[in-house]
Amino acid sequence: MQRNETVVxxxxxxxIETSCDDTSASVIKNGKVLSNVVSSQLIHTKYGGVVPExxxxxxxxNIVHVVDLALKQAKTYISNIDVIGYTSGxxxxxxxxxxxxxxxxxxxxLKKPIVSVNHLEAHVLAPLIENQKIEFPYICLLVSGGHxxxxxVKSYSEFEIIGKTIDDAAxxxxxxTAKILGLPYPGGPLIDKYSKNGNANAYKFAIGNVPGLDFSxxxxxxxxxxxxxxxxxxxxxxxxxxxxxxxxxxxHTIVNYLITKLQKSVNKTGINKVTIAGGVAANSLLRKELxxxxxxxxxEIYIPSFEYCTDNAAMIAFAAYxxxxxxITSDLEEVPFANYYKK
Length: 343
Hints:
The chain is of the alpha/beta class. It has 10 helices and 12 strands. 47% of the residues are buried.
């Protein structure tokens, strides 16, 4: 990173996000989102999960079209872009290389500054896109397919992780248990869908009893697997006959676990401003339970719109914009990274 001494306050910024299997581009002007285009890769469905090589190839195929569409929806031209932002990690290295290389190429050809963004930090700032009056500090529960963390957000650039998963992530727990039930990838949204007609207390599943604010989901997946295998031996159509109840019980177990840890974090820190971010933040039960906390615990809840929960370039653009306002730009030599803790 380097500090830019001449910061312009009338800024049009283009951002690119390619950390996993969604190719996304966004244009913002002075912090306001003008476009946010996301192209999802359906090819991974038949493999039951994201295949890194296929993801990077799809990014190469889609990125020009996605950027062009983002510019058109923003009603601007590439020549009007003042700054380029991009995701530097964490994520799939092949996918990150496509986005970072494209962004750096634009930076060189347009002679414009470039700003790299940590994907997870962008997620925890996403609630500010629609409500920039949220005061620091606030607590963010970051829940996605690859990460589950409780973070104190102290400013646009200061983050303290006070709780994290010691093994698997909540989003992976949703997707893997859905796979056990025979549901296609991504299974998390389908569990949410089928849960709406189910009994959340129909079945009990064990979930990690980890002290403090950390999480564990590996044992939960095993608990579901053993239960389903046992019932299937007794009744081959058990899952089909009880799908809604199973999904509702799975969802209730995961969400209750998340809310319990979040409650502990509020009690420990005394911070009652709470947000959620990441793909699992789109889960209807999680959003509903947080709304209840606003009524019963006097929490100030800020829940981003669905489009800013899953991977998207608008959150990258917003984070890059605030970095640039603070005089921070990036070197072209900066390389993408896969692991959050190695940044």
